Amino acid sequence: MYTSNLEGVQLVQKGKVRDIYDLGDSLLMVTTDRLSAFDVVLPDPIPEKGRVLTQISLYWYEQMRSLIDNHLITADVDAYPEILKPHADALRGRSMIVRKAKPLMVECVVRGYISGSGWKSYKKDGTVCGIPLPEGLKESDRLAEPLFTPSTKADVGDHDINISFEEAAEIIGADMAEKVRDISLAIYNKGVEVAAEKGIIIADTKFEFGICDGELILIDEVLTPDSSRFWPKATYKPGGTQESFDKQFVRDYLETLTWDKTPPGPSIPQDVLTRTSAKYLEALELFTGKA
User: Fold this and answer.
1) Is the pTM of this model over 0.85?
2) For residue 158, what pLDDT band results from cuts at 50, 70 and 90?
3) 128 band by pLDDT with thresholds 50, 70 and 90
4) What structural domains does the chain harbor?
5) 157 pLDDT exceeds 80?
6) Residues 142-173, buried b or exposed e (16+ Cβ, 10 A)?
7) Which has the closest alpha carbon to 115: 130, 144, 137?
C-alpha cells in the first residue's frame, strides 16, 4: 500500500494528488488515491484512482507522441533503480520515472462544450473566461470551436484562477502562449476523435507543459478523469448536466452542502466514493481495454 513515505527517497513535492520524489537526474512521480475537488484535497481517497490515472496517462502519452513529446522515461517498476526496489509493490501501476522539466506557470484548459464553471459564467454575462459566446446556448451544448482558456497554477489549498490569453502571454511570453494554445487545441481535437470511437465525449480538459533541454513537452497527467470532463456519447443530451466518467458524483454531492470550498474538505459518503471509483475504472477499460 502506498503511504506517501518512501524510506530513503527524498519527497520534494506533495501535490493535491501526486507525490514527486527526487532521484537525482530524474523524478519519481507517484499518483495517489487522494481526491481533489474545487482545488481542495478531500479526506477520503478513491480506491484504485491512482492506478487508473497513471494507466490512462500512459495511454495518451503514446497516442499524442506524433504531436508532442512527454516527460516519461519508464513506468516499468522492474526497471526502477535499486533504491526503489523495496517499494515496488506500492509503486506498481501508479508511478512513473520522468525527466526533470521546468513547468510553465499556466495551466492550459480547453473547453469543447459549455459546462461547469463555463456554464455558470455564460449564464451570468454571456461569456466564458471573458470570451463572448452566441446567445441561446443550453447547458452542455457543443461549442462551434473549442476554446483555449488558460488559468494560473495553484498551490495545494489554493484555487486556480481563470486568466485571459493576454495575461497568459505576460506570464510565459507571447510566443510560448501561442505555442501552448495551438498544441493544446491539437491534443484536445485528437483526443476527441479517439474518444468518440470509444463512445466517450471529452467536454473539457486541462494540460500542463514544461521545458526540458530547450524543448516543450507534456508533463503531469493527460486526458484523465481528474483533468477532464468525460461524458458517455450514448446518453448525451444538451440542456442539463450529463452522466460522467469523472469525479462529478463528488462535485454534485459537494454542491448540496453549505461548504465554502475552502480547506478542510468534508468527508464523502461511501456510496459516492464507490460510484466514483467504478466510473474511473470504467473509463480505464473503455480507453485502454484494461480491466
Assistant:
1) yes
2) low
3) very high
4) 10-98 (3.30.200.20), 102-245 (3.30.470.20)
5) no
6) ebeebbbbbbbeeeeeeebebbebebbbeebe
7) 137
